[in-house]
Automatic annotation (TrEMBL):
GO terms for biological process: mitochondrial respiratory chain complex I assembly. It comes from the Eukaryota. GO terms for cellular component: mitochondrion. InterPro entries: NDUFAF4. PANTHER family: NADH DEHYDROGENASE [UBIQUINONE] 1 ALPHA SUBCOMPLEX ASSEMBLY FACTOR 4, UPF0240 PROTEIN. It comes from Balaeniceps rex. Belongs to the NDUFAF4 family. This is NADH dehydrogenase [ubiquinone] 1 alpha subcomplex assembly factor 4. Residues 18-27 have a biased composition (Basic and acidic residues). The gene is Ndufaf4. Binds calmodulin. Interacts with NDUFAF3. Residues 18-37 are annotated as: Disordered.
């Protein structure tokens, strides 16, 4: 219903509106700046002569210039589809794996999976004397500096359940 109504207003008196727009005078363009005109250069003969005059001194200097270019020798690649073996990252097996197929099986050395990060943070929180930064660094093949910053800046969430207040206490 709304489309019909807007179409009626849009097509109302279209021809007369179009004729009115066409019959309007076109706006005159803004005048150009005097320095942008190229006609003035044609009026000055000394400028034209300077443009077309050959300078013998410059021509002799140009003749003395000798450019020699050599392309590097073209090498033909043998076995275009073969690539050189790239540096393989050392990987280690993850310590956990209770999610089965969804779990990450191998992690590059110096890195940990999210599950491992949460586990080591929780272990350190529960038993800080046993799970020290040095032990975690050795266990997960990490750098000690990174482990200390991880333990300092990341804290796992704790779930606290508050007893439900009864109506009598309110």
């Amino acid at each position: 219903m709304g489309g019909r109504l807007t179409r009626v207003f849009r097509t109302f008196n279209v021809e007369s509106r179009a004729r009115r727009e066409i019959s309007k005078e076109k706006p005159t363009p803004a005048p150009r700046h005097s320095t942008s005109r190229l006609d003035e250069l044609a009026d000055h003969l000394e400028i034209q002569e300077e443009i077309y005059r050959k300078d013998d001194r410059l021509l002799t200097l140009l003749k003395d210039v000798y450019v020699e270019s050599r392309d590097p020798p073209v090498r033909v690649k043998d076995g275009g589809g073969e690539h050189l073996p790239c540096k393989q990252e050392e990987k280690r097996l993850t310590k956990l794996g209770h999610l089965g197929d969804l779990d990450v099986k191998k992690v590059p050395k110096g890195k940990i999976s999210i599950v491992e990060a949460l586990t080591l943070l929780n272990n350190h929180k529960l038993h800080p004397q046993i799970w020290t930064a040095e032990k975690i660094a050795v266990e997960y093949s990490l750098e000690l500096k990174e482990v200390t910053s991880l333990l300092e800046f990341f804290i796992p969430f704790t779930v606290q359940e508050f007893p439900k207040e009864t109506k009598k206490a309110i």
